[in-house]
Design brief:
- InterPro entries: Amino_oxidase, FAD/NAD-bd_sf, Protoporphyrinogen_oxidase, Zeta_carotene_desat/Oxidored.
- The chain has 466 residues and is of the alpha/beta class.
- The chain contains 16 helices and 20 strands.
- The protein has 3 domains: 169 residues, 3-Layer(bba) Sandwich (FAD/NAD(P)-binding domain), CATH 3.50.50.60; 111 residues, protoporphyrinogen ix oxidase, domain 3; 106 residues, Polyamine Oxidase, Chain A, domain 2.
- Helix content is 34%, strand content 23%.
Length: 466
């Protein structure tokens, strides 16, 4: 390695970029590397979509609401930055799917796959014909698809339209805010493809000790921090030297110059780097690297818009309570909201005694116009929807509407192949440029943290050879 101090610039201060900056600095300190790390964030705060509001004793998440517990990277990072004692698990509670004006308890695993036969047979979610069609999974042959296919095509073939539309679609589209008939199987749940190929029947395969079966195991639940997810961001940021974090600075373009890269900033300044981790959304990456045509692929990758709505009530306002922690909404229902979580039940620490906190989401693939409405219009629509299942007798004490424009990248069929090809081309044409974040290999917080860690390993491997 050269004697001069090498410089790595991380573009983007969301959880992926924060993770990369933290672990780069830690590695440099532990291994006594001559390394300078600079984190550049266009906004005035770090954390990206992680935003917490503390109001009147309520802890309100405006973006991501929790962390999947079985993925260990977030808990590990929490220990690193001294936040482990703030971690708390969600309470147990029944979840529902709303179909044609009626709430039905989920009969199977968290993804809606009928891994347990009894509850699936007795549920009112499906007609007898729908249940009989789903049972065809026991005799259907393996899929002949060796390449990618949509989640919708895969599950419709195995279980039929009724199971997909009334159960699997509302669950999966709630995660990705996308069209299940366009979302890639291999980029989201490749384990299901593997189970089918190995066991033929999905139901039988999920009874085995497989990676996909572990996905359906909800006993590990979800995690958050009693002080809110944004406190996690603050803790990570506290481990970074303030001089290495540039906020309110936008990278306008990156140009390769020999073995190095020059970053042009909106302040008029330039920074030279040995390596760059681009941890910003794919549309921003395409703009930053617009001089290079192989990034044009990212322009074709769609991103959907959603809004989250938090409503606080006195518990006396809710006349029809429901035992559970929330529900998702089938497209076969006359609702605008796509989900509702009873936050005060799922996360008791988030809500003062005697109060109720509801969190809903709006915005579907192909129907995102509601996100553009005013706060007042959105509140009115959401209350009308909630009153179809709950008897709410007064207006909220307050409502917080948060819009996330083009914030949900869509992993459409062929996504994994396209991203793999782009990263391979980068390694050949622009070595030292690393892509990481929710646009590529997972939307959840642990997925983004994983990508931040992987980016660190790739950068250090590259710098060691430079």
């Amino acid at each position: 390695m050269n004697q001069r101090k090498q410089r790595v610039v991380v573009i983007g201060g969301g959880i992926t970029g924060l993770t990369a900056a933290y672990y780069l600095i830690k590695k440099a300190r532990e291994d006594k590397l001559s390394l300078e790390v600079i984190l550049i964030e266009a906004g005035q705060r770090l954390g990206g979509k992680i935003q917490t509001t503390i109001k009147d004793g309520f802890v309100i998440e405006k973006g991501p609401e929790s962390i999947l517990a079985r993925k260990q990277s977030a808990s590990r990072l929490a220990r690193e930055v001294g936040m482990e004692d703030k971690l708390v698990y969600n309470t147990d509670g029944r979840s529902f799917v709303l179909v044609r004006e009626r709430l039905h308890g989920l009969p199977g695993g968290s993804m809606g796959i009928p891994a347990r036969i009894g509850p699936f047979v007795t549920t009112g979610l499906f007609s007898p014909i729908g249940k009989l069609r789903a049972a065809a999974d026991f005799i259907l042959p393996r899929s002949s698809h060796s390449s990618d296919q949509s989640l919708g095509a895969f599950f419709r073939r195995r279980f039929g339209d009724e199971v997909v539309e009334n159960l699997i679609e509302p669950l999966l589209s709630g995660i990705y805010a996308g069209d299940i008939d366009r979302i890639s199987l291999l980029a989201t749940f490749p384990q299901f493809h593997q189970v089918e190929q190995q066991y033929r029947s999905m139901i039988l395969g999920l009874k085995k000790d497989t990676p996909a079966a572990k996905i359906l195991n909800t006993k590990d639940g979800f995690l958050t921090f009693t002080s809110g997810l944004e406190s996690f961001v603050t803790a990570i940021e506290s481990k970074l030297h303030p001089a290495t974090v540039l906020k309110g600075v936008k990278v306008e373009k990156v140009v390769r110059e020999g073995a190095d890269y020059t970053l042009f900033l909106n302040s008029g300044h330039m920074i030279t780097a040995d390596a760059v981790i681009a941890a910003v959304p794919h549309l921003a990456v395409q703009q930053i690297f617009s001089a290079y045509t192989y990034f044009d692929e990212l322009k074709e990758m769609p991103a959907n818009s959603v809004a989250t709505i938090a409503m606080a009530f006195d518990e006396s306002a809710i006349k029809k309570d429901i035992e559970g922690t929330g529900f998702v909404v089938s497209r076969n229902s006359d609702y605008t909201i796509t989900s509702c979580t009873w936050i005060h039940k799922k996360w008791p620490h988030s809500t003062p005694h005697g109060k109720v906190l509801l969190r809903t989401q709006v915005g579907r693939a192909g129907d995102q116009t509601i996100v553009e409405l005013s706060d007042e219009e959105i509140e009115k629509i959401v209350l009308e929807d909630l009153n179809k299942t709950m008897d709410i007798t007064s207006k909220p004490e307050f409502t917080i509407v948060t819009r996330w424009k083009d914030a949900m990248p869509q992993y459409n069929v062929g996504h994994k192949q396209r991203i793999t090809a782009l990263k391979q081309q980068l390694s050949e044409e622009m070595p030292g440029i690393i892509l990481a974040g929710s646009s590529y290999e997972g939307l959840g917080l642990p997925d983004c943290i994983d990508q931040g860690e992987e980016a660190v390993e790739l950068v250090l491997e590259y710098l060691a050879k430079k």
